[in-house]
Write a structure and sequence with these properties.
By secondary structure, the protein is of the alpha/beta class. It is 27% helix and 12% strand. It has two domains: 171 residues, Orthogonal Bundle (Flavocytochrome C3, Chain A, domain 2); 318 residues, Purple Acid Phosphatase, chain A, domain 2 (4-Layer Sandwich). It is elongated, with a radius of gyration of 27 Å.
């Protein structure tokens, strides 16, 4: 096909016809049909093996000490930084000195249980978070552990499909239980796996220590054991009062038949926070508010209720914009954001009775936390992917017909294309695209061939009815082949000289670049340095084949697959 592209870019693997996605988006076609989740509602269900994997690079950083917090005990000016005693806190997090306790803040993991993709040097992940907590324990620093929620994100459009998103969500909850979290803020985004289903998974997986916190929600009937409007947690000599607010508008917008479980007793923040704060203040040394809503809502609440020592806000950006957390209300309140995708955490040193009561730091979860983390490794690598295998998320992926190409065309595999395009096939066979599936077999993570988030970019036509399903039934579609870029080829192979079939499969470099075809897999996680013009020459195949042999024009029926 003179003047067309074929078998694309290097690094990882291509995508199953992004142009189809673009066309369907323009036509308003849903990417994924939602499953009926009503059976999960309102009752405690038996444990279900029902989370997200995902990433960029940064260097180890921690924040400078905060300005003194004069609110609860008037302190000196910000410049009067407390000196770190010799031998206390030297090395990592030296700025914290020797705190009485540490408040650890995480949130908005967005399904990134660990860094994903084909790029080294990424940061974040639950294994590193586990190692950080191990480090805290070795230091002998007692800790209070809170999470802002947002364990998953947009499960209906998740690359691995809705069912895998639910499984990953469950394993994320299990991970926070393993890490002995004290409180998790309820997030509207997490309810998108299904309100009843999400609550049932929390009920089955949280255990006695970890609680869902939401001051403006009445606990649904049957789920009282996992809900608290606020709680007080002791860490060494320190008592920390914790509460949270979920944005009422976000809950109201949920499209879920079971959302009344949450919205029936829903209140506005201003109706509940004064009372909750008044209850926490005499019983705790520090008061913490997590706000599951827009940052502007968190800031407004922080300014309206300056009695809170720490207000945790959602983040507009994946990476933290500053490693110097912000003090507001005249230095009285720490306004803390920890970014998205689980790449950072907040470590807040607590010093009750001292002039500087709080010293915050932002911790980057990078290679300095690459300890064995054996229990977490077992959970989110071995157990999670074994659950994917047993649940058949790849084989049972909800597929749909190809849209945007020749109606009725099916995927046939590169070996079929080879008969008329031998030189183009040989060029493709030298690229990493040809070995995309094989690379999964050698991945350090186990069972990734059963992980739909990986398979979608390492096979051909995965999300489509005639595309890849399993090694047993569609081995001829392993790897990133011709049809991921050109579309299914059965009609063209049967009638190679039919202009409308050739036109449907033709693809110019400019069209691929403008449509960001490659970037659906060569994205910020998998190929952060990808640039079309720099990589396309490595797979360009214009004019490699001649079509003067009469048999090329006869056409044939693709072999039955």
């Amino acid at each position: 096909m003179d003047g067309t592209i074929g078998l694309f870019a290097t690094e990882c693997a291509g995508y199953n016809s992004a142009f189809d996605r673009i066309a369907r988006k323009e036509e308003g076609v849903e990417l994924m049909a939602r499953t009926d989740l009503r059976p999960w509602a309102a009752v405690a269900l038996s444990a279900a093996a029902l989370v997200y994997v995902g990433c960029t690079s940064s260097s180890p950083t921690e924040s400078k000490p905060s300005v003194p917090a004069p609110g609860k005990a008037a302190g000196p000016a910000a410049s009067a930084k407390k000196p770190v005693p010799a031998g206390e806190g030297s090395g990592f997090l030296a700025s914290l000195g020797k705190p009485a306790a540490v408040l650890v803040v995480t949130g908005e993991m967005n399904g990134y249980t660990e860094p994903c993709g084909c790029t080294e040097g990424q940061i974040g992940g639950l294994l590193r978070r586990f190692d950080f907590f191990e480090w805290l324990a070795k230091k002998g620093w007692p800790s209070v552990r809170v999470d802002l929620g947002g364990l998953t994100k947009s499960p209906a459009s998740a690359r691995g499909g809705f069912e895998q998103a639910k499984i990953k969500f469950d394993y994320s909850i299990k991970a926070l239980k393993l890490l002995k979290y004290d409180a998790i803020a309820l997030a509207a985004e997490d309810m998108k796996v299904g309100v009843g289903e999400a609550l049932a998974l929390y009920l089955n997986s949280l255990g006695e220590r970890t609680k869902l916190v939401a001051a403006n929600i009445e606990p649904p009937s049957g789920f009282e054991a996992i809900f608290q409007k606020s709680r007080i947690v002791e860490a060494g000599p320190v008592k920390v009062g914790i509460t949270a607010i979920v944005d009422p508008d976000a809950l109201e917008k949920l499209s879920d038949p079971d959302k009344d479980l949450l919205v029936a007793g829903l209140k506005r923040p201003g109706d509940v926070l004064p009372r909750v704060l008044a209850e926490l203040e005499p019983k705790s040394d520090y008061q913490v508010l997590m706000v599951q809503g827009p940052p502007r809502m968190a800031r407004t609440l922080a300014e309206s209720y300056p009695g809170f020592d720490v207000v945790v806000s959602t983040s507009e950006y994946v990476d933290v914009l500053t490693h110097d957390p912000e003090m507001i209300n005249g230095g009285r309140t720490l306004f803390l954001q920890v970014g998205q995708k689980g790449k950072y955490l907040g470590a807040v040193g607590l010093y009750p009775g001292e002039s500087e009561r709080i010293r915050p730091a932002i911790v980057t979860l990078n290679t300095q936390f690459d300890g064995p983390a054996a229990p977490m490794r077992q959970l989110i690598r071995d157990d999670y992917r074994e659950a994917l295998r047993q649940m058949g998320v790849v084989a049972d992926y909800v597929r749909h017909d190809y849209v945007g190409g020749v109606p009725g065309a099916t995927f046939v595999g590169a070996e079929t294309c080879k008969s008329c395009h031998p030189n183009t096939f040989m060029k493709w066979s030298t690229t990493k695209h040809a070995r995309a599936f094989e690379s999964l077999l050698h991945d350090k993570k186990p069972n990734v061939i059963y992980d739909a988030e990986c398979i979608t970019c390492h096979t051909t036509g995965f999300e489509y009815t005639s595309g890849y399903k399993s090694p047993e039934t569609t081995a001829y579609l392993q790897g990133n082949q011709c049809e991921n870029c050109h579309g299914p080829g059965s009609k063209h192979i049967a009638e190679p000289d039919r202009a409308e079939y050739r036109t449907a499969m033709a693809l110019t470099p400019d069209k691929a670049d403008r449509g960001q075809l490659c970037q659906h897999c060569h994205d910020g996680d998998n190929s952060p340095k990808f640039e079309f013009g720099g990589y396309y020459p490595q797979i360009a195949h214009k004019g490699l084949d001649k079509y003067d042999d009469p048999k090329v024009h006869r056409g044939r029926n693709p072999s039955a697959k």
